[in-house]
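Marked as duplicate of an earlier ticket. Keeping the data here for the record.
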Amino acid sequence: MNVAVRTLCAFTAKTGDLDVRFTPAPTALEGQEGHAAVAARRGAGYQREISLSGQHGELRVRGRADGFDPDRGRLEEIKTHRGAGALARQPANHRALHWAQAMIYGWLLCERDGRAQIELALVYFDIGSRRETVFTRTLDAETLRQHFVRCCEAYLAWARSEQEHRSARDAALAALRFPHGDFRTGQRPLAEAVFRVARAGRTLMAQAPTGIGKTIGTVFPLLRALPGQQIDRVFFLTAKTSGRALALDAVAALRRAEPALPLRALELVAREKACEHPDKACHGESCPLAQGFYDRLPEARAAALAVPVWDRAAVRALAQAHRVCPYYLGQELAHWADLVIGDYNHFLDPSAMLHALTQLHGWRVALLLDEAHNLVDRARLMHTGELDQIRVRGLRHTAPKALRKPLDKLERAWKALNASASDEGEDKTGATPGYRVLPALPDELMGALQQAATAVLDHLAEHPTTVDAGLQGFLFDALHLTKLAESFGPHSLCDLSRSRDGRTSVLCLRNVVPAPFLGPRWAAAHTATLFSATLQPPAFHRELLGLPERTAWIDVDSPFERSQLDIHIARDISTRWQHREASVAPIVARIDAQHAERPGNYLAFFSSFDYLDRVAAAFEAAHPEVPAWRQARRMSEAEQADFLARFVAGGRGVGFAVLGGAFSEGIDLPGDRLIGAFIATLGLPQVNPVNEQIRQRLDTLVSQDTGSGFDCAYLYPGLQKVVQAAGRVIRTPEDRGVVHLIDDRFGRAEVRALLPRWWGLGAPPGP
């Protein structure tokens, strides 16, 4: 077995406190330049990037030492940093880790060259001042060998157990049986498609109806494919907590069928949901769970092996038992899990942890992306950044004097940009004067922003104990914006939204087509399956997400009969904005008539909270005898649970909700907990200057086969929400229900063509 020096030392030599306080650090490019600068100062015989390897038992250790001076007999480990005071504040465990790496390289070089001793140097290079700080040790080969053996033995004990686990896992997965006996209608072709693409190393888009059991229908075949394809990890990625719950349910079903299944499944949760001490900072001087974290981590990690599933509750229990932080324990366990269940961000975000681990360890990974119709919007957000001028102005009044000059320069550049945009008046696209799309990046402002960010970085490096949330927030947003600027192109917009008085504005680099960013992520995976009930039309998702050309497509037949769902189209009602007021009374009448005909639980969906409140108030006034409850803005998880708890078996009433919100997808109300839905909108995004610019940009970027800019910006996203909401009604083969599509536009051929085949709407009636 093989291990990198860095991995070996991270596993065996990390000790002391967890400390994730923000410390300005060089970028990867700055680190490379720093290494080159140090090497350039050395003599002509200086050797850079020396490949070294050694063997201990069955373990082969390999890596690249930063530099070696044969004339001085000195091996150098180079680390870059920012700020002259950084070394004085460097935690002892950080430097101990650096020495551990240098000692491993030192032994490997001694063994290779037959040296009796060697001088080791830690070279810390300040990228700002260009100064070096050097710490040296001269150690004999035997001391270095003993250190090497200790590290290898500690790692081997774990590696052997990992190797045994991998063999047992693959043997069990090769013989894994479907946990539910028979497949549901449509589940088998879905499972077969997932298995085939995994075997071929391809990508799959799978559209399958809501309620078919897509999660187990994708997880099971992919796990079966792991041994034959030598896949190291499966990442199940979703947009919502409900998706993680379904994946954990699938794992539970597999374990019920195979109680001894050697499969490690990990649930990753957000930091704010896992944190036990939100009032404390993440370092040993503040949080007791950060103090001595790495000293207690090995025992916590070993104890985790006895726990079959590392869900949120299990990780928390392990963390409590060993007095470590549950969030960072989960991050550590990601190295050892076979199946990781998390958010899209964990692999697709520019700074995604799972993608970084994949690259670091050279893993062969497989992706499952649940509710993939959300991916376009989520990916756009990952690659969009904005900065508010008002925020910058506030900083100018509170920032230290040393930062006033670069912030003033940024303000002057911003004022000039506002004036330029104001002078041009209404642009050619017809957008209002308060909103403008800039033809190119404002170079002067971006240059000033870069200089201001660098100044803030240097200041924070020199004053790390001074916590200034405002400065840090500005810095993170500025760095994100400048990073996006490096890859700015036709796939994104640069726009300026000015205040009414024109004195301030918000600058935004807004992604429209995520394909250029996501393409490399698909390439980093052996196979990927994107699945949802709403992936129509496939060309839209394929093109905007940058999926490979050979991406396969399957549209799975529904297990439900047409007779299970009674669909009514309200051709006499318009829900367009100008007709909203007139639509309230007929919608109330339709809801009342349906509930009177078949009393029970219904959901009514609307395009906005304002529209929802109008109709709900009218319904409550006209029919006080019918229970009614409303979705509110910014509901907590507990409030959402209370809303859903009203849908009891044998109950009756109407829940009013917003289309595309928390209750229109990812919820399961089978049987008579929900017997019908009213959808009073096509779900089209609001017509505003931003969406109109996206429409225009898509008109020029997407192919004719994909559709028009209007289709891509409005129609497709809207109808996806409609189908998702309607999918709440029929969840099992025994369910019966009704859906009212309330808008005359549902009768159009181009709209009905995008609705599920099993609804059986067919061609629209003739005139």
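See parent ticket for discussion. Confidence is low (pLDDT under 50) at residues 426-431, 763-767.
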